[in-house]
Amino acid sequence: MHVPDEVVAELKATARPGKGDILVKVYADAAAAFQADDFGAAIRLLDQAKHIALRSIGVRELLGLAYYRAGRWNEATRELGAFRRIAGSKEQNAVLADAYRALRNPDKALELCREVKPADVDTATYFETAIVAAGALSDMGRLDDAIGLLERLDLKPEVAEAHHLRAWYVLADLLARKGRFTQALDLFEAVAAADPDATDAPERAAKLRP
How far, CA to CA in Å, does 19 sit from each of 13, 15, 58? Predict the structure, then answer.
């Protein structure tokens, strides 16, 4: 798998002396395994890579994401937390926060989400952060706050993208839980119309129709 030049430079800059080329090869193999959804192989390779370059942001980020995709939440928080500290980046806060949600720590998840401002990340990442924050609020029984948070997003784009559909679906679910069935139905139908196979929105909408 081709590794972007900027990632190669970062890997070689953080590798132990004489280990740069080996690190790039191991990272490339790990990235290929990750893309193939072979998270066990990716983790094994990236663990090797971490021993070659403990402070590589590329290695720690991908290792954290592999642990997350494998459902290994404690390890995911460790590696993504290290990425966040070393890189000074909020780019993976949503994933890190979701791992904390899985560990039943919604307060920590909400804290991480609140760090992210629209200027810090791209629109899709900001939406994902808001979705995780709404989930954390829901975990805490704060459904009205969760709904309000999502309703403050730009939910009426000219062209809906995947992050809009996810926000619509999560908001529809929250509205249904609050008994606001007409609004929930409208959103479930919007998700179903945009991508009928992505979620159970068609079935959810059918159950809410009079």
Answer: 10, 6, 16
Contact between residue 182 and residue 152 where contact means Cβ atoms under 8 Å apart: no
Which pLDDT does position 196 carry in this prediction? 92
pLDDT digits (tens, 9 = 90+) for 187-203: 999 999 999 998 999 99
Locate tokens 């980046």: which residue?
Answer: 89
Exposure class string for 129-145: b at 16+ Cβ within 10 A, else e: bbbbbbbbbbbeebeee
Number of Cα atoms under 13 Å in the Cβ half of residue 131: 23
The pLDDT confidence band at residue 153, using thresholds 50, 70 and 90, is very high
Phi-psi region of 209 (alpha: psi -120 to 50; beta: other; left: phi over 0): beta
Distance (Å, rounded) from C-alpha 58 to C-alpha 100? 21
Average pLDDT over residues 90-119: 97
DSSP per position, 70-118: TT-HHHHHHHHHHHHHHHT--TTHHHHHHHHHHTT-HHHHHHHHHT--T
